[in-house]
Write a structure and sequence with these properties.
The protein has 17 helices and 4 strands. It is mainly alpha-helical. InterPro entries: Acyl_transf_3_dom, Acyltransferase_3.
């Protein structure tokens, strides 16, 4: 899932690493500090530090998912658009075909591997402490079958279910896999459709697709996917480079305004926005411009990311910052962190916070057994545990990129080599249409 070497675009990998970290932080907060997602903890009370604008972006994982959708559109379009601008349509079509063919196995195999890991942990009973936690998010664990054949059958079902109903009991965080796959296939089809039109009109068309999904109330995988296509095209546009080069003062100022405004809008709270003046004003500003019954938090994250992305394109310094070695290192592990963090949170982190002893179930007044919930020890204990958890998480993700990802890559290559045709028969690229219809409409004539 790397972006390759298509010019100064490595900042997208850094952005992806930032997104995976946001997803981890938001799930930690959902598990033990759910009120942080509100505008403030209670009406007529001052907000906590992480409930303030800008800072709350760090714990609102919506932006992380939005970044994944944006990056998917950007990466899928990057190489074909560059080849189109070089009049290398044959190479572009070959690139699209290969990418589309590899897309599903490159998503499916890591997803399946993470599901098998969670399944093994479940059947070994290692989620038992999480089942007794007083955190609703942590206590959502997969059902343990206890015998081999029912367990294997459930594993096969859940591995496929994520691609059908967007749900996987062994790893609920994988719900994004199917919409990301659907988004990429739509973009591949779009890229073929716009292959032979001028760049300015191709940009206009991608903006039209973005507007379509805006009006269709799809603020993540549709809207942001085609915004990623538009940003990739914008970055290849010579006028963009001229503007950045010639406007040495205006370009940085405009970039700063866009990034600042984007993160402010992306700070929109998930609940009780009316409790704070800044978020209530954002509601009244955004809602008239959105479709009926909009998902306000998702739209706010999407709009904020859109503005920030344009600001990054206008700022070489921001691109260099996002392309730093540290962020690129974390970006390389972003997908692995996304796949592993839920399982590790419900095992290692849960054991650190609650201990490893499972309390006995208790009987209620009617004599029925009820799960005994272990009490959360407090934020100070959690912070101390996180000092050890994050190195373990990213160490595990690094090991995943060294062993599991290469295996998935090899399996994908073997599958592609198995099913692709003999290269001696040609690649069958799509030629430019050169057929015109006769004025009388009775038949075609071929253009010279």
């Amino acid at each position: 899932m790397a972006i390759g070497k298509e010019g100064n675009v490595k900042w997208v990998d850094g952005l992806r690493g930032f997104a995976s970290a946001l997803v981890v932080l938001t799930h930690i907060c959902r598990a033990w500090a759910g009120t942080l997602f509100w505008a403030t903890t209670a009406q007529n009370t001052p907000p906590q530090l992480l409930q303030l604008p800008f800072l709350r972006v760090l714990i609102q994982g919506r932006l992380g998912v939005s970044i994944f959708a944006f990056v998917t559109g950007y990466v899928c379009a990057l190489k074909p658009l560059k080849l189109y601008r070089q009049d290398k349509h044959e190479a572009a079509f070959v690139s699209i075909s290969k990418s589309a063919l590899r897309r599903f196995p490159r998503l499916f195999l890591p997803s399946a591997a993470a599901t098998v890991l969670s399944w093994v942990i479940c059947e070994l009973g290692l989620y038992s402490v999480a089942a007794h936690a007083d955190s609703g998010w942590i206590a959502q664990i997969p059902p343990r079958k206890g015998s081999l054949f029912p367990a294997v059958g459930n594993l096969v079902y859940e591995t496929g279910a994520i691609w059908i109903k967007r749900n996987n009991e062994y790893d609920r965080n994988q719900w994004t896999m199917l919409p990301l796959l659907q988004e990429s296939i739509k973009i591949y089809a779009f890229l073929i459709a716009v292959a032979y039109i001028r760049p300015r009109y191709r940009m206009l068309t991608s903006f039209g697709m973005f507007a379509y999904y805006w009006m269709s109330n799809d603020p993540v995988f549709g809207m942001l996917g085609f915004w990623g296509v538009l940003i990739a095209e914008l970055q290849f546009e010579p006028a963009t480079a001229r503007f950045v080069d010639q406007q040495r003062i205006l370009a940085p100022v405009l970039s700063a305004v866009l990034v600042f405004s984007g993160f402010y809008i992306a700070s929109y709270p998930e609940g009780h926005a009316e409790w704070m003046p800044w978020s209530d004003n954002l509601t009244h500003f955004l809602q008239p411009n959105l479709p009926e019954n909009p998902d306000m938090p998702r739209f706010s994250s999407g709009i904020g990311l859109m503005l920030a992305a344009v600001g990054i394109v206008l700022s070489p310094r921001l691109q260099e910052l996002l392309a730093s070695r540290i962020l690129l290192f974390f970006g390389k592990m972003g997908f692995a962190v996304y796949l592993l963090h839920g399982t590790l949170m419900k095992t290692l982190l849960t054991w650190m916070v609650y201990g490893i002893s499972v309390p006995a179930d208790q009987k209620d007044d009617k004599g029925q057994l009820q799960i005994t919930r272990m009490k959360y020890p407090g934020h100070q204990t959690l912070v101390m545990c996180l000092l050890f958890f994050f190195p373990i998480l990213y160490g595990s993700a690094y090991a995943w990129t060294q062993y599991v990802d290469p295996w998935c890559e090899r399996m994908t290559n073997k599958l592609v080599n198995l099913i692709k045709p003999d290269e001696s028969k040609g690649n069958g690229y799509i030629p430019m249409g050169s057929v015109q219809v006769q004025p009388n409409g009775h038949g075609p004539i071929h253009a010279a």
